[in-house]
Amino acid sequence: MIRFDNLCAGYSAPDGSREIVLENFSLEIQKGEFVAIMGANGSGKSTLVRLCNGLLTPFSGTVSIDELLISATDHNQIPAVRRRVGMVFQNPENQIVSTTVEREIAFGLENLGLAHGEMQRRVDKALQQFDLEKLRQQPPAMLSGGEKQRLAVAGVLVMQPAYIIFDEPSSLLDKAHRKKLLQMMQTLQRHKQHTIINVTQFPQEALLASRLIVLEKGKIALDGPPKEIFFQLEKLPQPGIGSPIEFQVFHELSRHYDQVTNIDDLLLPPII
Fold this sequence. Notes:
By secondary structure, the protein is an alpha/beta fold. It has one domain: 3-Layer(aba) Sandwich (Rossmann fold), CATH 3.40.50.300. The protein is 34% helix and 24% strand. The chain is built from nine helices and ten strands. The strands form two sheets. Strands 6-7-8-3-9-10 form a six-stranded mixed beta sheet, with helices on both faces. The relative contact order is 0.15.
């Protein structure tokens, strides 16, 4: 379980001043959940997920990942937390460090100390899963934006972390690879072996999750099943988040036609 307990967090300036983003913030994410997080720019989404793997530490309060604890004064568990929590950034160049595609995927496995045979098996499988086999020996700098994003995702998933955080990972992907990534998120979570947290700006992606958390100005504005959240149009923070088009159509139709009672009749296929 990921738990935030009475947290105060944000960013420190060189002059010692602080920008508080999250204050008196508490939240629990259970093992096996598929959670989507939405909110306007500046709502606290990136701050929240960076706290999950120690990229950011709290000013006060605690972050716990299972039995591992991070506080303002205790950072000792951060290396162990990062082995348990994998993170895919919106900009893949923020996490690519190696000289070839193959070496980049193997980088994290080497740090885990895996046997060579197991490491090679995982690398080969990841290259195939993410359509990177032909680019095995290519320098990452020569890849397109979408190829770099697929490489970044492969480099995280190959380590098989218990918790996987996606920070708007589909923003650089074409339609086919976006669909493949979303299907993979569903597969990873389906057997409750991984906890998935997906920060997204796409309402249609949020519908795939079992839980949607909407942040507004560092607070939890709404928290619940995505369908229930999207029905509460008047409560959604503005600007920065909207509902899927099917829900907007349903609201308009239900105002004029009594026969329109089931949103599922209007829902498009969940992955587009």
